[in-house]
């Protein structure tokens, strides 16, 4: 029988498993006064009506009646705090740089030169300006993998960057910059080593000049299918172009690099009551260590952090960063409002049954992935960061959109936290999976890279799993395969397109 308290200021703790009325919890010197379901909150002290309920060190709301030490606090007993308007957001100097980070401060990566992030993989990325080419690209990429790639052992793989954008879209619409910027940044991703390869159809709206610089548009880098003589010529020309690129990529070697050359992202999907207790804070701890050692780490998922955005603002390193946070979150608020989307449906009944009382508590569980470091920059969807340290990238929370959007922002490795389980991955970078509890890890042992369940059972601390994850991130960044990579699992590149389709 155990309770977990996240932060020393918390006046509630979470039941690891269902607790019966009358049970003694020694560590907290209390007797539980009512039956408490798994994942739910128990009062650690008497509270007067109107007193704040503190979890994750933040206010979830106030109790609407007196509560006794040992009582179950459910969602009906907490009144929500007012959600602060974006105009009230202020930097608060609350970001904390992690002290005494691990001594391991390098990784083996593919250097891309001064001022650029290094690759964690050496991949030929075959991009396109339009979905119309997808069938040809897929067949050509398979042929290259089978017949040409084996000749170039230093190249890890071939990825066809097939996406749904490019034509039949309002290319000059206000928000079209988001998919266009994303595709341009995907083409130039650090894992492709500067070997640009873009296949167009010939009549699409997304012309080469929208995603490549004038110097980059030449016969070495671009190919137009409408200039080819039939299907077999298309495939043959793509293969010839690929071989030229593979020869150059094959010359690349891993070298020991500082962590300032590493950029890692995180997201969660299929969350459960333990996400905010075990896996997400472990990611946060590993991210704090990485950031303290000079790496760039990125978290996202606007709709999942929206109700904790004032806590993000307090960790922003300057008023300028807060201003960008207001702008990006404000954009998202309007985008949701335009579609009549309502976030009052959050948390879901399943979240509540799992112990998440309200949207603040859910948001804090998601934000736990970001650790405690100062937020040095806020970027829009598919935008490139310009600073090193903790970055908030304002992307949708949808797994299948957040992944490619962070990829467009240049991440070369992603940590994916899940409590329900999802086989999500990408082919362009390693995606590492962390389970929130051991039952899930044991159910999918060949899909998970690491289990945070030891924190739930009390066998491990957040520091233990955080350090384990830190080392594993550097191992995988240096070439060790993630589970998803070794299985060849990857999802489609669903890039974020808020602009109209015509
Ligand atoms: Ca997600």
How is the biggest beta sheet arranged?
7 strands, parallel
Provide the structure class.
alpha/beta
List the uncertain runs: none
Bound molecules: calcium ion
Instruction: Report the strand count.
Output: 22
**Residue fraction in strands:** 15-25%
Give the domain tally: 3
Total DSSP helices = 15
Classify the helix fraction into a percent range.
Answer: 25-40%
Report the span from N to C terminus.
58 Å
Radius of gyration: 24 Å
- Average pLDDT confidence is 94
Strand order of the largest sheet: 18-19-17-16-20-21-22
Bulk shape? elongated
Task: Briefly characterize the structure.
The protein is of the alpha/beta class and 502 residues long. The protein is built from 15 helices and 22 strands.
Can you describe what's shown?
It is a single chain. By secondary structure, this protein is of the alpha/beta class. The protein folds into 3 domains: 79 residues, Roll (Archaeosine Trna-guanine Transglycosylase, Chain: A, domain 4), CATH 2.30.130.110; 131 residues; 232 residues, no CATH class. 30% of the residues lie in helices and 17% in strands. The protein is built from 15 helices and 22 strands. The strands form 6 sheets. The chain has a 7-stranded parallel sheet, with helices on both faces. The longest helix is centred in the middle third of the chain and has 20 residues. The termini are far apart. The mean pLDDT is 94.
């Amino acid at each position: 029988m155990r309770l977990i308290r996240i932060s020393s200021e918390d006046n509630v703790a979470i039941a690891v498993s269902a607790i019966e009325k009358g049970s003694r919890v020694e560590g907290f010197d209390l007797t539980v006064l009512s039956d408490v379901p798994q994942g739910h909150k128990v009062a650690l002290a008497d509270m007067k009506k109107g007193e704040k309920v503190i979890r994750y060190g933040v206010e979830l709301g106030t109790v609407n009646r007196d509560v006794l030490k040992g009582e179950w606090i459910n969602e009906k007993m907490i009144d929500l705090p007012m959600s602060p308007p974006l105009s009230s957001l202020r930097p608060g100097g609350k970001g904390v740089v992690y002290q005494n980070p691990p001594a391991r401060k390098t990784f083996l990566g593919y250097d891309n030169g001064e001022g650029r992030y290094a690759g964690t993989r050496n991949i030929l990325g075959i991009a396109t300006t339009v979905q119309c080419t997808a069938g040809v690209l897929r067949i050509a990429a398979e042929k290259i993998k089978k017949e040409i790639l084996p000749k170039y052992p230093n190249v890890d793989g071939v990825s066809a960057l097939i996406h749904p954008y490019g034509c039949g879209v309002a290319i000059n619409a206000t928000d079209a910059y988001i998919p266009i910027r994303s595709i341009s940044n995907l083409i130039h991703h650090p894992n492709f080593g500067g070997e640009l390869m873009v296949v167009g159809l010939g009549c699409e709206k997304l012309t080469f000049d929208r995603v490549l610089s004038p110097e980059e548009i030449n016969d070495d880098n671009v190919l137009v299918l409408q200039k080819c003589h039939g299907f077999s010529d298309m495939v043959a020309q793509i293969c010839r172009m690929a071989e030229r690129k593979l020869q150059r990529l094959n010359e690349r070697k891993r070298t020991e690099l500082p962590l300032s050359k590493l950029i890692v992202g995180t997201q969660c999907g299929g969350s459960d009551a333990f996400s905010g207790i075990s896996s997400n804070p472990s990611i946060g701890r590993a991210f704090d260590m990485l950031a303290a050692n000079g790496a760039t780490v990125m978290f996202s998922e606007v709709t999942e952090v929206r109700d904790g955005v004032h806590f993000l603002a307090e960790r922003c390193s300057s008023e300028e960063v807060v201003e960008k946070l207001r702008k990006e979150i404000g954009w998202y608020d309007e985008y949701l409002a335009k579609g009549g989307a309502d976030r009052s449906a959050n948390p879901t009944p399943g979240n509540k049954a799992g112990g998440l009382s309200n949207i603040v508590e859910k948001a804090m569980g998601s934000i736990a992935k970001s650790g405690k470091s100062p937020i040095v920059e806020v970027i829009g969807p598919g935008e490139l960061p310009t600073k090193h340290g903790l970055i908030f990238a304002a992307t949708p929370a949808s797994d299948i959109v957040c992944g490619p959007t962070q990829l467009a922002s240049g991440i070369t490795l992603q940590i994916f936290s899940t409590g329900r389980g999802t086989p999500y991955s990408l082919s362009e970078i390693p995606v590492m999976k962390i389970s929130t509890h051991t039952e899930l890890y044991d159910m999918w042992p060949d899909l998970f890279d690491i289990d945070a369940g030891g924190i739930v059972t009390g066998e491990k601390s957040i520091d233990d799993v955080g350090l384990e994850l830190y080392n594993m991130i550097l191992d995988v960044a240096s070439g060790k395969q993630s589970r998803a990579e070794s299985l060849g699992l990857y999802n489609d590149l669903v890039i974020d397109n808020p602009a109209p389709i015509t």
